[in-house]
Amino acid sequence: MLGEDWDVLHSPDPADSHWSTDNVGEAAPGVLTPLSWSMWGRTGDRMPREVAYRMGIFSAADRRQFPPIVRPFYGRIALRMEYLATVGDRMPGVDGADLVANMFGRVPDTMNFASTMRRYPIICYRLPRAMISAPRQVRRRATIIDAWWRSSIAALPDLSRSECVSVLRDAVDRFDESLTWHSLALLAVVQPMLVQLTKLVERAGVGDVGTLSGTGGAEMAIVSDIWLASRGAMTVADVVANHGFHGPLEGEISSRVWREDSAPLERMISSYADRPDSEDPVQRERRASAQLPEAQREVVAALPPSRRLSARLLLTLAERILPLRGVGKRSFLQSLDVARGAARQLGEHLVAHGELSSVDDVFQLTVDELTRGFPADARNLLNRRLERGREYATLSLPGNWRGIPDTTVSTVNPDGKVIVRDVGETIRGLGVSAGVTEGQVRVVIDPSFAEVEPGEVLVARTTDPSWASIMFLSSALVVDIGGPLSHAAVVARELGLPCVVNTRTGSSLLRTGDRVRVDGDTGTVEVLERAQDRFAAQESR
């Protein structure tokens, strides 16, 4: 299918480049609305250029002239894999093929690479500056953005139409800046730090990466507050005041987060209330913090004396730096939420003036259409986009492809899954949190978690920070996409749950009720019993 001017959700690549939805799909999952794409697309193309420039990988000319880094394909946002190949080919100690393999699980046979050292002098100058400035800026902006989010959300009901437009513009700019600093910190500091910590643990032969990664992450703050609410130490309103920008599909601007619909949060609090006091995540985090120095000493003691000083420095930095990943993410999600609130309030004004039929129709328009010039034929445009979005939702895309992807019509059943694996067969991915457990599968299709029961093995296409709340009740997690720094991996390590990510097809090959063995060390999920086999055996008794 070729792109059409009015359809902003499909812009096929004429250059026959390689594309993937695997990593960007975690932040902005599924078929986006036009308003979501106009935010993610703008920042998703500008931010990687700016990050590469600040690290010295791109020249000023590269920053301007590199081909589009993200594009929408059938409503999904995709990343040009050649961007990461270029970054890897120019970075000291890395090559393009390794970086592509680490990010996407494999290297397409048709990709070309061209390693070069010509940017090394500039990288050696700029990268240390980025490593120092990025963590400081992320923390500083987190305080500013949090205060702005709270005041902006409180002021939404009284905004005029023009004020809604002004707030929307401001939110888009803050989203762009927050995501840029977050990504710079991630690529220049957090990712390299995790790689070095993992290598250190492997050399020492003792220690756990999750334990040594520090405590007090933003995702665990959600779990702690929900626990306190389940014990009556906080109210639902208190939790919403701190985390109301989280909720089902929070990376999609049209979704309804907890501050708009607290029902999923209230169900979670009720489930937490049924857990014994011994599972208190607040106390668990305190114990982990108290045990961290001893865990660090064990790693250092297992190394030769010549390596101990550098190991101590690395462990100290890892404890401080690795939790930073959730801080920047919180900031850009808060910025997105202010844009969500301003857009909905603007939708109220447009409905009142007869320009829209429904408030949520506002999400079928782009940022430019809402802030620079409202379309003259808005109703016709909205109808066409709504119909096209529904069409895209029926299509399935591969994880990566070249040029224009081949699509298939989704054939999932009402339970959400197609059964194609036999008992004894194994699904393979990346083990990102150690441990082995057996349990009953819950394939999560409804992001409100309405059907999730405590102790189940959660299986999903992707996750976002709000998943931390349900992971606390689970026994293990299996996710189609993700890596060592994905939401699922970070929270699973803090909770001590086995976790396997990057299975690519786990949510399609497993069915709710299956019994599986999840091995977070080897990255495997073994099917022990199929749901229909167990249910049939129970009925025959």
Q: Which helices and strands appear, and what pairs or packs with what?
A:
Elements: E1 18-20, H1 24-27, H2 34-54, H3 60-65, E2 70-73, E3 76-80, H4 81-90, H5 96-104, H6 120-155, H7 161-204, H8 209-212, H9 218-230, H10 236-243, H11 263-273, H12 281-301, H13 305-321, H14 324-352, H15 367-371, H16 378-393, E4 395-396, E5 400-402, E6 408-409, E7 426-428, E8 430-433, E9 436-443, E10 457-460, H17 468-471, E11 476-479, H18 487-495, E12 499-501, H19 506-509, E13 515-519, E14 524-529, H20 531-540
Parallel strand pairs: 9-10, 10-11, 11-12
Antiparallel strand pairs: 1-3, 1-5, 2-3, 4-6, 7-14, 8-12, 9-13, 13-14
Question: What does the model show?
Answer:
This protein is 52% helix and 10% strand. The chain has helices at residues 24-27, 34-54, 60-65, 81-90, 96-104, 120-155, 161-204, 209-212, 218-230, 236-243, 263-273, 281-301, 305-321, 324-352, 367-371, 378-393, 468-471, 487-495, 506-509, 531-540, and strands at residues 18-20, 70-73, 76-80, 395-396, 400-402, 408-409, 426-428, 430-433, 436-443, 457-460, 476-479, 499-501, 515-519, 524-529. Helix 6 packs across helix 14 (324-352). The strands form three sheets. An eight-stranded mixed β-sheet has the order 7-14-13-9-10-11-12-8. The protein is globular, with a radius of gyration of 23 Å. The model is unreliable at 412-421 (pLDDT under 50). The protein has three domains: 18-156 and 341-388, no CATH class; 185-333, no CATH class; 425-539, Phosphohistidine domain (Glucose Oxidase, domain 1), CATH 3.50.30. It is an alpha+beta fold and 541 residues long. Strand 2 (70-73) and strand 3 form a beta hairpin. Residues 274-288 have a biased composition (Basic and acidic residues). It comes from Mycobacterium triplex. Residues 270-295 are annotated as: Disordered.
